[in-house]
């Protein structure tokens, strides 16, 4: 159990970190989202850290931590482990500070993230099948070589650096009343909470700070309920940037004291939010950066009794593998009722496929793929299975297409 003590990071630490970061990081813009406002009934603004150098907020904390190294420590170099954003943040900070960086990344890491990390000048070592294995190897290397290990979130300088986003946000939106952001290990949420809550106290008003996790990687709700770090047995989410199975110890101390709530969203909601941001805000955001938008679209704030007038969502990163983006977009369109896949079992006789095609065309849906199978364990002699992908115009239109197929005697089964 944790004992309530003085927090490991203060407003003064965050303000000092901001001085260190002057001229180093982008003062990222805040974009008003009329579309989200119409969908939620609140005035919604997006803090675009997806437009930050190296594509995420991570460079803030990494640079603050590394800028404080002594000349002797800098000469020994730094080492870190990451599947993406932290790797790029450390690599970029090291390049700017003239420090040699070695980054351990898991086997199978997305090629764009691997390439970007190397392009920033870091030496990349592929090791292990997940971030935990890469992390363990990075720590072993630090012990054997003397290189300084740069943690992704469990460090006061890292937390203070991430907290500078909160200072910027309050300058850009002085009257904001609710701030949402994703949380993995907790460095971003903890740092922003320190800045926002302290500044709100100075102003004599309340600003709610709420974290959002993917429900399949949500270690904070059980940990906060137990007032202890509760590791997850399994983590599985498209939001790889927040796929952390155990909260950071220092962030947890801050979050349990300052953060108003940590809520969760589904994988389908993440996909829908990413598509929403692409279409309505023209922003490329990775799933981990879209969790706050997913929470708004799902009405999660209303579920916990929060009804904001002016809400800000921190879009924490935009580093998404194009191959993952293709899958997420398709899933997001499906969730929105704009992409429908059906499987239909038929007697193998002439004319059936033509009839199906006619019904779909008359229903004003657009077929994008047809798979026609006569062989399979579930098929009897003389049967055929047809799988059809089609573009539709929403849930109501999708249901009309299904009804029209049924009216012709077919039995379409929706494939998710």
Automatic annotation (TrEMBL):
Source species, domain of life: Bacteria
Q: Where is the ACT domain?
A: 341-416
Which EC numbers characterise this protein's activity in its record?
A: 4.3.1.19
Q: Which SUPFAM superfamilies match?
A: ACT-like (SSF55021), Tryptophan synthase beta subunit-like PLP-dependent enzymes (SSF53686)
Return the Pfam families for the record. ACT, PALP
- On whether Protein biosynthesis is a keyword of this UniProt record, the answer is no
Q: Which UniProt keywords apply?
A: Lyase, Pyridoxal phosphate
Q: Which InterPro entries match?
A: ACT-like_dom_sf, ACT_dom, ACT_ThrD-II-like, Ser/Thr_Dehydratase, Thr_deHydtase_catblc, TrpB-like_PALP, TrpB-like_PALP_sf
Cofactor(s) needed for function: pyridoxal 5'-phosphate
Give the family, as the similarity comment puts it. Answer: Belongs to the serine/threonine dehydratase family.
Q: What is this protein called?
A: threonine ammonia-lyase
Q: Which organism is it from?
A: Arthrobacter ginkgonis
Give the gene name: ilvA
